[in-house]
Every structure is written in structure tokens, then in C-alpha cells.
Design brief:
The complex is a heterodimer of chains A (about 375) and B (about 180). Chain A has about 375 residues and is mainly alpha-helical. Chain A has helices at about 5-40, 60-70, 80-100, 125-145, 150-180, 185-195, 205-210, 210-225, 250-275, 300-325, 335-360, and strands spanning about 110, 115, 195-200, 200-205, 280-285, 285-290, 295. Chain A contains 11 helices and 7 strands. Chain A has a 3-stranded antiparallel sheet with strand order 5-6-7, with no helix packed on it. Helix content of chain B is about 25%, strand content about 10%. A 3-stranded antiparallel sheet of chain B has the order 2-3-5. Chain B has a two-stranded antiparallel sheet with strand order 1-4. Classes of the chains: A mainly alpha (about 375), B alpha+beta (about 180). The interface between A and B is medium-sized, with 15 and 18 residues.
């Protein structure tokens, strides 16, 4: 089979969609963070940036931020490792961006005899890929901490590494239950399996079949984004952290990497526990309700509904993560370590054992 | 610490419910405000330059010199305020009043607002009720120390504040801030 220009275009389109989705959402998150925290705290929030007197609820503030960061002095500490210092923010942002690639944002789109999987990359080990990329993201942070030639930055980098290890283990172990239940490492397969019904009417979403894993994964996932309540690497109330020597857009890229990771974790949670692009009772041909009714829908509309459902779920997850970030006080370093190793990890192991026992008792996949 | 608290989840959920309730209640009020319910307010914020916080009637704001009917200052340059001032920010030069019934008037009456501590002693000490601190003006600033010195003419031009402490006279702009 020779790759035609159309194939190339489709592949490009898939990647571009995912890039646009995650970059725009990540950029918008600075606004969401400001406004959501303000509304939660009975405030109004940043609303002063204006273009020709137009304010539209402070939506120009991300733009103003970008202009500010691009025009600020790009400081390089005298004793810093020049190459690694400059490389670190790019590493952070890069792995945050590519991690989303294997998360499916829809089923398949059939256009002109072609079947296009709605996923930037179709991987049969999608979960492992996302974790690999998320874990590699911490290298940027460690690099920044080491290359800055600053003790506080080094402390921050070390803490990032320690936090990442304790969080990754909990994430990996909590995911195991889901993988055992749905019997696949491919995110697309896991999402498809969540479309079937439990007892004939409950959608078999991961949050219902693996409630413990959901809580563990969300906790560890928030830890992986390095944001409050797990902001030890940054620790702005104590050590300022790994980006203490960074300024301008390089600093902005670290902030952006955190937001990108938030989007990735939200997308992953959606795929694993909230049914991904599944709309309850919506199948290839349209709605088929458990009480017998059917509603036929054209293929394009079904695909649109699925992509819309996925986006909506991701946005709801981001809302929840922001709510957590602006509600909980931060953990101390040792508390976070204790929570990771003595709380999340044993519970995740327990979840694996329980899932295994249930699967064994049931005979096979229920 | 109770065991229930050590198991974070319950406390976390109750905290999320609290902040989530704030979010949705405020969001509802913001939406009601956007759709015409002007009395619904989703935030306690007072958007300052456009919106001013109501001032208490007795709040001590920028001084003013009270005028007589003919426009001359009511002040008789008795130096009581200058004497009582703990910050020593008042500087008065006395002069003859053209009206023989009135003994004196100030030729100069400068207040250095950079030194003033807004104690209000000058207002209390004044036997003629000639100096008051009721203009409602709180925004006085300058780029230099000299600009903080307000002269007799500037202080005499000021009017008392309206209801809710809304200033009725413009903020006197020191010379070094004139664009």
C-alpha cells in the first residue's frame, strides 16, 4: 500500500486536531484558573486587560500574559549549565504535548470509503505510552533544578523526582485494575469496552466498575501534575522550587507544562473511568435505549456527538481538578511521600487483588 | 486527630462541596446579573475606580479650609492647629484681614500631606470651625515630596463630600503630576 497525499493529510489532520485541542485548552486554563478560583472565593477575578475597551470577562489576560513573558528579560544565571538550562522547559512542554497522542477523542470516522480512527496515533499499548511520556516530563523539571546552579532549584528538582516516583507507582498500580477488567492496554479498546451495559441498563464506565481505582488514579494524577495540593517541587511558600532561576517565556513554558499535564490527566481519566467518547446508549447507528426505544442518527452526527462528549467530559474533569486545587491546602513534603507510599500504593495493590478475586469468581470478564 | 480525619477522603469531599457550592451559587448570581437582575451580585468585589466604597460619615479624609460668605477663609490664623499638630505638618503665615472686625487671616496655610497622620486634632482644636476633614477625597499622591504640600488655595477650593462620602470636588492634582 502506498501512502497517498490523502493519507498524509488525514494523519496530519488527526495530529493537528489533538494539538489544537490540548494547546488551546491548556492556554485557556490560565483564564479558567483565575476566573474559577475568583468565583469560588466570591471575587470577580482578572478582568482589566482590554482591547479597544473590550474586556470579555478577562479573556485577554492569557494574551497579555504571553506578551509580558515574551518581552521580559530572559535571564541566564552565571554558573548555570547553559545547554541544559535552556533545554529543560522545552523538554517539559514537549512531553506534556505528546502525551495526549494516544488518547482517543472519538470512535472511527468513515468518509469516502476510508475509516479514520479518531486518535492521533493508534497504539495497542496506549496506556503505557501516556505514562512513559508523563514520566519523561519530570526530566525537564529535574534538568531545570540541576542546571540552575541554585540550591533551592536543586531541592525542587529532587522533590519533583521523588514525587513523580511515588505518584507514578500509584498511577501504574491503580491502572492495573482497569487493565485487568477490560483486558487491554489499548485506550481505544478500553473506551469501546465501556460502551457495553451492566445489568442491561448501566453503562459499564470505569468509575462504576473500578471506583477505588478512580479515586487513587485521580489523586496520583493530580500529584503528577505538580499542582497544589501536591506542589512540593514548586513549594512557593517555602523553596520556590525548580524554576526559581527562570524568567520570561521559559518560566511561562513550565507553567504551561503544568496546565498541559492537567489536560492530559483529565483526558486519561476520561478515557479510563468516564467512558471516553461514549455517550450512554449511543451506538454506531444511533441511540438504542434499554427500555426499547431507538433513535437513528446519521454517522457524522454520531461522531460529532462522541467528540463533543469526550470534550465535555475532559472539561468537567478539569473543572474538578481546579476545584480540588483551589480547595485543599498543600501537603507537606513528608506528608505527600507518606500518602503516596503508605496510602495510595497499598490501596492500589488491594484494588488489584480485589479485581483479580472478582474476575476469578466471575469466571471471565463480566 | 480522629481516624475519620486521617482518612482524608471524607474531609476532602466536604471541602469540595463547600467550595463547589460557592462556585455554583455565585455563578448563578453572575448569570442572573447578566440577564438583567441588577440586584443579584455574585461577588463582594467593589471595582474601585468606577465604583467607590461608601465612606463612614466621620471618616477623616483630605482637609479643606472653610470659606466665609465673601470667599475669604474662615481661619483667623490663631495657630491652634499648627500647635496641636503631632506631625507638625501645618505651616501658617498670618496676615491682616481687610475687614477690621476680623483680626487676622492666613496669608499662607500649607499642609504637608506627606507628614500628616490624619489624627484630626487640627479639626478638634480649631475654635472657628475653619478646618474640616470631610471632603471624601482619599486619592492624593505625587511624584515628589514637594507635590504633597497642599496650599491654602488648593484647600479652600474643596467642597464637603456628598452622601456616602462621594467627593464633590475634583482631586487637587499637585503641579508635578500635571501631564
Amino acid at each position: 500500500m502506498t501512502a497517498t497525499l490523502a493519507d498524509f493529510g488525514i494523519a496530519f489532520g488527526r495530529v493537528a486536531f489533538v494539538m489544537m485541542f490540548i494547546l488551546n485548552l491548556g492556554g485557556l486554563l490560565t483564564w479558567v484558573e483565575r476566573k474559577q478560583s475568583a468565583i469560588m472565593q466570591d471575587r470577580i477575578g482578572a478582568n482589566r486587560a482590554s482591547i479597544f475597551g473590550l474586556r470579555i470577562m478577562g479573556l485577554f489576560h492569557p494574551l497579555a500574559d504571553a506578551i509580558k513573558m515574551l518581552t521580559k528579560e530572559d535571564f541566564l544565571p552565571a554558573r548555570a549549565d547553559r545547554f541544559l538550562f535552556k533545554l529543560a522547559p522545552f523538554v517539559s512542554v514537549f512531553f506534556g504535548l505528546v502525551a495526549f497522542a494516544s488518547i482517543p477523542f472519538g470512535d472511527t470516522l468513515r468518509v469516502g470509503g476510508r475509516t479514520i480512527p479518531l486518535q492521533a496515533v493508534t497504539l495497542n499499548v496506549g496506556i503505557l505510552y501516556v505514562f512513559a511520556m508523563l514520566s519523561l516530563g519530570v526530566y525537564g523539571v529535574m534538568m531545570a533544578g540541576w542546571a540552575s546552579a541554585n540550591n533551592y532549584a536543586l531541592l525542587g528538582g529532587q522533590r519533583a523526582a521523588a514525587l513523580m516516583i511515588s505518584a507514578e507507582i500509584a498511577i501504574g498500580a491503580s491502572i492495573m485494575g482497569v487493565v485487568m477488567w477490560y483486558g487491554s492496554l489499548s485506550l481505544q479498546d478500553i473506551v469501546r469496552a465501556q460502551g457495553s451495559l451492566l445489568f442491561g441498563w448501566i453503562p459499564k464506565w470505569g468509575i462504576l466498575t473500578q471506583p477505588l481505582a478512580f479515586i487513587l488514579f485521580l489523586t496520583a494524577g493530580i500529584a503528577a501534575t505538580k499542582r497544589i495540593p501536591f506542589d512540593m517541587p514548586e513549594g512557593e511558600s517555602e523553596i520556590i522550587g525548580y524554576f526559581v532561576e527562570y524568567s520570561g517565556m521559559k518560566f511561562g513554558m513550565f507553567a504551561m507544562a503544568d496546565f498541559l499535564e492537567t489536560v492530559v490527566i483529565a483526558g486519561l481519566t476520561t478515557s479510563l473511568f468516564l467512558g471516553g467518547w461514549q455517550v450512554p446508549y449511543l451506538y454506531e447507528a444511533g441511540f438504542r435505549f434499554p427500555w426499547g426505544g431507538t433513535l437513528g442518527l446519521p454517522h457524522l452526527l454520531v461522531v460529532l456527538l462522541q467528540v463533543g462528549a469526550f470534550s465535555l467530559k475532559v472539561v468537567v474533569m478539569i473543572f474538578l481538578m481546579m476545584l480540588i486545587r483551589w480547595t485543599l491546602p498543600r501537603f507537606r513534603y513528608d506528608q505527600a511521600m507518606r500518602l503516596g507510599w503508605l496510602g495510595l500504593f497499598p490501596l492500589a495493590i488491594l484494588n488489584i487483588v480485589l479485581t483479580g478475586a472478582v474476575l476469578l469468581a466471575w469466571g471471565s470478564h463480566p | 486527630m480522629k481516624a475519620a480525619q486521617r482518612f482524608y477522603l471524607r474531609e476532602v469531599i466536604s471541602g469540595l462541596l463547600l467550595t463547589g457550592h460557592h462556585f455554583f451559587a455565585n455563578m448563578g448570581k453572575h448569570l442572573a446579573h447578566a440577564f438583567g437582575r441588577r440586584d443579584a451580585r455574585g461577588a463582594v468585589t467593589i471595582q474601585y475606580p468606577e465604583e467607590r466604597r461608601p465612606l463612614a460619615p466621620r471618616l477623616r479624609s483630605l482637609h479643606r479650609l472653610v470659606r466665609r460668605g465673601d470667599g475669604s477663609p474662615r481661619c483667623v490664623a490663631c495657630m491652634m492647629c499648627e500647635t496641636v499638630c503631632p506631625a507638625r505638618c501645618i505651616y501658617i503665615v498670618a496676615d491682616e484681614h481687610p475687614n477690621p472686625d476680623i483680626e487676622k487671616m492666613p496669608a499662607r496655610f500649607d499642609i504637608d500631606l506627606g507628614k500628616c497622620v490624619f489624627c484630626g486634632f487640627c479639626v478638634e482644636a480649631c475654635p472657628e470651625d475653619a478646618i474640616r476633614m470631610d471632603t471624601g477625597i482619599l486619592e492624593f499622591s505625587s511624584y515628589s515630596r514637594r507635590g504633597m504640600i497642599y496650599t491654602k488655595e488648593m484647600l479652600m477650593a474643596l467642597e464637603p463630600a456628598g452622601p456616602n462620602g462621594v467627593p464633590r470636588s475634583p482631586v487637587p492634582i499637585p503641579a508635578d503630576r500635571v501631564v
